[in-house]
């Protein structure tokens, strides 16, 4: 039996991305891994429901033997078998655990198949949770980026929104295998901001929530980003009220993204709660966007989290300026 590669999950940030990337690499390479000190930089450390569910999903796709994957565990072993793709896979975090984190661990595994037939993922849980990308970010930032720069074909449909703390959302993702090797890319010159777009979504709340979120975001951008107030940088943020019969729980959120001349996309977001005024929520999302823009890179740090694995798997060298705090993901 091949000895498991030992990975220290506490490196630098000590979050869940090391766990997800390691498992994806293991499944694709066929090399077993053991991971210790999982989420050592979080309080409490160890696996939460969505991490365990993601591991179980990856194990199903990769015909893997998964050991010690239980809530609170700080060490697991993953021994991959053969990929069972194409196929249809279902994962349910049961809680409001983020569907986007389930997507991150499974998505790379569905790209490499000898069959041209697509695979599908039905992911259940929170679509708009804290401490994870919102599903609107995956739909409007992550997927457009990997389509354009990596040649990946994938579609995402939000069947039902699930807000914190109830969860209960459902997302359908369709992934077409690559017809050729994953291509590399180079993004070194960000260029000028072409436009800013966004979605202010809400459900089970008064009708003024949407326009107030939009106003809070646009006002902050106008006051703090040169080119917005005079129309040089167009801003288009949609107010979207979800149907109550297609949403679990009341909630709100804002996702913004800036498209730049160099081909990059930089996102910003904020998730609402009962204590946050909607206009302040819009402002918070705009502040998050400006934080990414002021860093000077071609992508934001959350997108970088998600594309590093594809950069490693691509044929040839992919290059873009690296966020310093994300060095752990390249580990």
Summarize the structure.
The chain is an alpha/beta fold and 331 residues long. 30% of the residues lie in helices and 25% in strands. Among the domains are: 1-83, Translation Initiation Factor IF3 (2-Layer Sandwich), CATH 3.30.110; 193-294, Dihydrodipicolinate Reductase, domain 2, CATH 3.30.360.20.
State the separation between the terminal residues, measured CA to CA. 25 Å
**Approximately how much beta-strand content do the residues carry?**
15-25%
Compute the average pLDDT: 93
CATH topology of the domain at 193-294: Dihydrodipicolinate Reductase, domain 2
Domain RNA 3'-terminal phosphate cyclase: 12-318
InterPro entries: RNA3'-term_phos_cycl_insert, RNA3'_phos_cyclase_dom, RNA3'_phos_cyclase_dom_sf, RNA3'_term_phos_cyc, RNA3'_term_phos_cyc_type_1, RNA3'_term_phos_cycl-like_CS, RNA3'P_cycl/enolpyr_Trfase_a/b, RPTC_insert
Pfam families: RTC, RTC_insert
Catalytic activity: a 3'-end 3'-phospho-ribonucleotide-RNA + ATP = a 3'-end 2',3'-cyclophospho-ribonucleotide-RNA + AMP + diphosphate
């Amino acid at each position: 039996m091949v000895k498991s590669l030992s990975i220290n999950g506490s490196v630098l940030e000590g979050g869940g991305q090391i766990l997800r990337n390691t498992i994806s690499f293991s499944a694709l390479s066929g090399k077993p891994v053991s991971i210790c000190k999982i989420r050592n930089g979080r309080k409490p450390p160890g696996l939460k429901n969505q991490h365990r569910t993601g591991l179980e999903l990856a194990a199903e796709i990769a015909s893997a033997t998964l050991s010690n994957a239980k809530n609170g565990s700080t060490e697991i072993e993953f021994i991959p078998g053969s990929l069972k793709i194409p196929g249809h896979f279902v994962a349910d975090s049961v809680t409001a655990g983020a569907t986007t984190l389930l997507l991150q661990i499974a998505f790379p595994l569905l790209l490499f198949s000898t069959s041209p037939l697509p695979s599908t993922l039905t992911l259940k849980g929170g679509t708009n949770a804290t401490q994870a990308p919102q599903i609107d970010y995956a739909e409007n930032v992550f997927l457009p980026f990997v389509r354009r720069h990596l040649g990946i074909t994938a579609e995402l449909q939000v069947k039902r929104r699930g807000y914190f703390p109830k969860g209960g959302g459902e997302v359908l993702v369709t992934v077409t295998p690559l017809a050729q090797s994953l291509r590399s890319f180079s993004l070194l010159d960000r260029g000028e901001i072409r436009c800013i777009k966004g979605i202010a979504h809400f459900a089970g709340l008064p009708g003024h929530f949407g326009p107030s979120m939009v106003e809070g975001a646009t006002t902050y951008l106008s006051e703090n980003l040169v080119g917005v107030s005079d129309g040089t940088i167009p801003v288009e943020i949609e107010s979207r009220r979800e149907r109550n019969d297609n949403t679990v729980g009341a909630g709100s959120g804002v996702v913004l993204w800036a498209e730049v001349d160099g081909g990059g996309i930089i996102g910003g977001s904020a998730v609402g709660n009962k204590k946050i005024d909607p206009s302040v929520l819009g402002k918070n999302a705009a502040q998050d966007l400006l934080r990414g823009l002021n860093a000077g890179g071609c992508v934001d740090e959350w997108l970088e989290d998600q594309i590093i694995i594809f950069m490693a798997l691509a044929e040839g060298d992919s290059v873009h300026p690296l966020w310093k705090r994300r060095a752990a993901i390249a580990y």
